Predict the 3D structure of the following.
Amino acid sequence: MSLPGSARRREIRLAYLLLSPALLLLLTVLAYPIGWELWTSLTDLSPLSDGPQAFVGFENYRRFLGDAEFWRAAAVTVVYAAVTSVAKLALGLGFALLLARPFRGRALVFLAIFLPWAYPAGVSVIGWYWTLNPPTRTAYAPFMGHLKYVVDGAFGGGAWAFVSVILFNIWRGSSFIGVLLLAGINAIPPELFECALLESKSAWRRFHLVTVPLLKPFLALGVFLSLTSAFADLANVWLLTAGRIVFPVIGTHAYWLVIKAGQYGPASALSLTLVPFLLVVLLVLFRLFDPWEENPA
Amino acid sequence: MNPKPWWAKLGHGSLMLLATVYCVFPIYFMLVQSLKTPEEDVFGNPFIVMNPTLENFEELFERKSEVRGFVGDALRRSYPFLDWLANTLFIFVGSVAATLVIGVAAAYALGRLRPPGFRWWRRAIFAAYVIPQTLLFIPLYQVVITLGLDDSLLALLLIYPTMALPFCVWMLSAYFQHLPREIEEAALIEGASRATAFFRIILPMSRPVLVAAGIFTLGTVASDFMIASVFLLTPNNQTITAGLGTFDVALDELAAVAGVNLLAIPVVTISAVFARGYVRGLTAAMVEGA
């Protein structure tokens, strides 16, 4: 840096000034609430009890370890996150590869693939619910009802609702990841593909040795965003099952503890159990999309 | 290249078709339902609409509809749909604008001015995504009440930007960071101020990345259901999302699906117009970026 010290100091001051609105916003909306949740998770706070809030240490966390319901919710969450992430990545990669090369009608197919993500999910989830669970008077209600009984019959009650949650998540997420990976493929210089074409005849080898390594940052980002959305999911599960939750995930289980029993302490502890996992995932993935070491520009 | 054999073309074509149908079918289905008359809803073919009607859309806008049937008001609640529409537009436009302004300022600071430890600042901001939103609304309610914003659209304007900000700051600052220093320095040597150099040179160059950040924000904001339903209570203050959540499922199915589509039309149109820019911006941020 060739700037004299005082100019650099001014620059740094300006930097903090410009940074402050973002930090202030994040502190108000995220830092305080997460602090509250941390503190509450160590207490027995409940709007239903009269006594003062008591500090209980790690009692709330310890209770989970012996609670079968917690392990069930955890298992469902892991399955939900794993299944949706794998499917989204596979479909998204397929979409991106399909769109990678020019062909007639490519713009239209691209728009079609972009659509599920662009369609506002806050309401498309409502549309999905009514499509999958139509009022009995509609023409296709018997068919959907039949489908529901077949799935529920094979896997137990509530299975169909859970499947619909997974389908919705995959439908919307594969669109996002497909577009993200397309952006990644566009970033690969075409000469590299031409070189690869000369080097190897096998399309699989070219894909595996050229495309995947160059897509790594995009894949990592996609995986991370997919995992966070699945792990913390509450609204989609709640809406698509209309609150009749047979397969609880961590998010819905915590929400249930709050609205049913007013157990703020255990519920906070429950939702916080996700943080360390996501943090580890993020630290691993940062190395791929935001490398530690970099040549100073 | 030698021409592809017919079976490769066929395979490619059918994959395209499959992908398109998979992506568009649920939306098509919702669209068809929203255009149906109640009679056709009951007796018609679910996949097509023979006599398309806009009556479901019209119904949304009739604030005080007459009471039909014998059950009375319960069957025909009226909805302030125009208010919902106005609120939704206000919130979407406001959130995207706020996120972009705040995000660009922070990204410029991190990517161009580079205070000590700027990479860690950026990672810390991005790490906001590890916080699960699940129960955050309980303490958030305290914040919102302290600020006097309960049952106000401004509460959403406070919360929504934080859902997209971490990604936008990360993307924009990675892009700014990798623009060559000379771009700005030439202008500074010519005597331009930092602000002029930013607004005249850096900002116009970053258009695709700004578009990407904006579309990402719009998609994120439009995907929220939870926050809108928790913080907006009186019907006149609700957004379409929050309002539709209160519809009576069994009774108003067609009108609700019409409402879903009505919100989707502007959002999808904007996203479609900028779709190419979105991809270009993501590419630019990631490659010229980190």
Observations:
- Chain B touches chain A through 101 residues (CB under 8 Å).
- Residues 44 and 164 of chain B are 42 Å apart (CA to CA).
- Chain B has two domains: 6-74, 81-287.
- Residues 81-287 of chain B form a domain with the MetI-like fold fold (CATH 1.10.3720.10).
